Amino acid sequence: MTRIIAQAQKELTQTLRDPLTVALALLLPLILLVLYGKAISFSVTRVPIVIQDFDQTPRSRQYIETILASTTYRLVELPPNTKPEAALLKETARTIVIIPGNFQENLASGQKVEVQWLIDAADANTANILRGNANSLTQAFINQNGLNAKAFTSRVKAETRLWFNPGRENDKYIGPGVIAVVLALFPPLLAALAMSRETEQKTILQVYVSSISAQEYILGKTLAFFTIALAEWVLVVTFGMAFFGLSFVGDPTPFLVGTVIYLFCNVAFGVMTGTAIRDQATTIQAVATVCFLLSFLLSGFIFPLSNIPSSIRWVAYVVPARYFIEITRDAFVRGGGWIAVWPAHIALLILGTIFLFVAWQKMKRMQLDQ
What we know:
Blueprint: H1 2-16, H2 19-26, H3 28-39, E1 47-53, H4 58-68, E2 73-75, H5 84-89, E3 95-99, H6 103-108, E4 116-119, H7 124-144, H8 148-151, H9 170-200, H10 204-209, H11 214-244, H12 253-276, H13 280-297, H14 310-313, H15 320-334, H16 338-369
Parallel strand pairs: 1-2, 1-3
Antiparallel strand pairs: 3-4
């Protein structure tokens, strides 16, 4: 144990002497947290819309006011002698609303009225949101003007209640995921660079001729960068909770225990990668691809895992961020506690143990080869 602690102290001393490494460890995670928080949004707001009103009556103006009362749209003028389709083609508008003549008259007489919505569907996801928004605004107009009885005769009425996040705040969904993804990149990157630097600069030879075993060497490295990862976690979580307006909604114990296991898992992956790859440039590429790209795309951070094709969905089972995102979203949004997230803790512990075992096996063979 003494040798493990000595190895960890030596690694921490070397790391703290390098200002660039300290900046990479403590400053860049916060910058990335802010960038993700500002750049990623699932809200569709201020979409340019052109409205053609061929009725010009109080009812048609009420319909227009209902549309513009939503933060989803901002009105843009259609130039004279310009067809609506041209505005979509030039991207000066994303949505066109055409109100037919006799709009008010047909509503008053109970006849069917068709308002045409032309939506730019180049972005399919945004188009689906805008289509749903068009239906919601039209229904709101009908209800506000006492037209619901004429429009619907069904006796069944659905009442919807939003659970866990009734305000539909994007930050409560994005924030926990950002914390997990940021912590998936920097702890393993620092550990991997330190390991590969030893081989690239030939200082690993001092380890081979020393009396320290491969197990002690690996554990010492892991302990050092786990300590750095804890410091990163304190900064990221403290700043992230303030930045995204997060707070614990249940028992924080699963989150705290999950954090320890998750950081261990990421550091173990970095140690394994740095042991297997002997130059720093390739190490950076490997960590960026696995820890960043896979954590971003195959963890449920942006896209639900159920939306990912089954042919590649299986990769998500070996992405640690996938499990920690479940833990963070439960801690800050759902509040299910241990009964909801304990399988994620087990999965992270298994992955971390495998990563550390592979690193130990690789290091042991290298020492024997020498």
